[in-house]
Structures are given as C-alpha cells and as structure tokens.
Amino acid sequence: MTLVLPKVPFSRRRVLGLLGTAATGLAAPAILPRRAFAAAEFTTLKPGVISAAMIGEMPLSGERDGKAIGSDVEILEGIAAALGMTVEWELYGWPAVIEAVQSNRAEWFGGNFAWNETRAGIMQLTDAAFYTGAYLVMKQDKPFTDSVTIDQMAGYTLGTVVGFSPIPDMQKIPGLGELKLYDNTDATLRDVVAGRVDFAVLDAPVIDYIILQNPDFGLKQVPLSAHPDYPLLTSKFSAIWGIPPGNTDLFDAVNQGLRWMHATGKSAEIMAKYGLTNPDYLVPMASNPRLGVDRDEAGNPIGTYGHTSRDFSEFFPV
User: What's the predicted TM-score (pTM) here?
Assistant: First the structure.
C-alpha cells in the first residue's frame, strides 16, 4: 500500500520564486483589479511582493515540478493578484514559519495553524482561512454517516499520533476498547486501512487530501459531535494566517482579501480542488474565542495589535 503523503525536504530551504497566478490555475481576468495597485504603498521586503513562508504540507501548501501548489497557496496568490502584487514562496520547517514572520524575515505564513491567545500576542493573525472541526477517519463500511458521539465510541479502538493535543480527552472516553498511539500519520492510517484500528483522529485537511488521492483505501471522515467534557477532542478551531507585527497595511489588505475570497465563493472552489469539499470548513464556530482578545464584536483588531483598519475594499469588489 502506498500512501500519497507530502514529501518535504526540511533539511534545506528553497526559494520557489513564484510570481503572479502562473501556478494557481486561477483565471487572471477574474481577479485582477480595474487599476494597478501601487505596491510601493506597502512596506514589504521586496516592493510589490509578498514573501511567504510555507511548511509544504498538502493540501494547504506543497511543491510540484518546482511550483507551489495547495489551497492556501492559491488563495493567497488570488489576493495578491487583486492587489497588483506577486508572491514568492520559501519552504520552512514547521516551527520556523512562525519565527520567520515574527521576526519579519517573511511576511506571511499559513497552514493548519490554530488561533490561540499566545500567538495573538506575538504577531497579527488574520480572520480564519478555514475552520477545522473534530473528525474520525474510518473505513467506509463503518455504520456512521452524519456524526459520531463520544458514547458511540465505546467498544471501538482509536488511534492517533504521539503528542497530539486531544490525547488526554481520548484517554477519558468511557468504554473505549483501546487507544493506540503511533509515531506518525502514515503508520496510523495504515492500521485504519488494514482494519487493525477502527477510528483515528488525525489532521482533517491532510486526510481529506489523502482520501482524494487514494479512493481505493475506502476511507471516510465523519464529524465527532461536540461534547463539553471533551473540549480538546471535539471542539472546532480556526486556522489562521500570520502577518508580521508591525505591518498593519499588509495585514489589513490580506485580511480583507481573505474575506473577499470567502464571500465570492473562491475559497470554497479552490479548497474543493484539494479534497476539502466539506462545507463545514467554512462554517464559523458557535462562539468566537477571539472576542475581547484580538477582535471586538464588529471584527476589528484590538489588543496588542489593535489599530484602525485601512480600507482596501476597492480592490475586492463583491
């Protein structure tokens, strides 16, 4: 069995130097503004360019034939094109992207990074690029379709990766047959496919992409119903993008562009190309943990990086 998993050479970093929408497949006439944007109005590392740090984890970002691909890649390049800007991509390891943006060596990072109060205190965090709910991956013949409750997991075996944050909640599930911990996603998923474990809790976007690439695995993801006693396991979180602390203009432009991509349906269209077809990815959480921390009731930035937002709506007509 061969899993289609991202292969990322973290031992070195490479500038991909992708400009415009050449690698995105987006039609330029549909997203370019009616007049060119004066990139000099931004203070960026390179005039007219967003220097982006990616981790190379599909389906959000990766590389194919020397070009960046992925849903985050295409969405950011669509925003940049609307602003009359381009994007250059550089490959980093997982923790290094946050440090690069925090220190202004890069001007954007994305991926399946959850918003939290600590991150909100060290850099500007955009609105949600998408929302990740709690899912169980399982074989298609399992008798669950719409959802799985905590109580329904009794008697089944559950697998996940060592170090995943919901493990303490998993250990409390009443009547769980067994909790198996694996070294990585690959090993966990192999046991699900082979029937050696019934369910697994893994990175939902990554699993959706693997299912798209490997339909013969016979897998599905089913939402895990929210339960107040299991917040780490069953709660939704918002996946955000990071922008350097002092660059409020770039933050405002990218953040407004992200809202525009959602409002026009472009985000959903791009995400679907990479297997992220579940509409729940774009459904906000019932309660917003950012209120009073880095957002007010109207969605304005407050807190450490609170400021009066600059209006870029002319570049993002709905």
Answer: 0.80
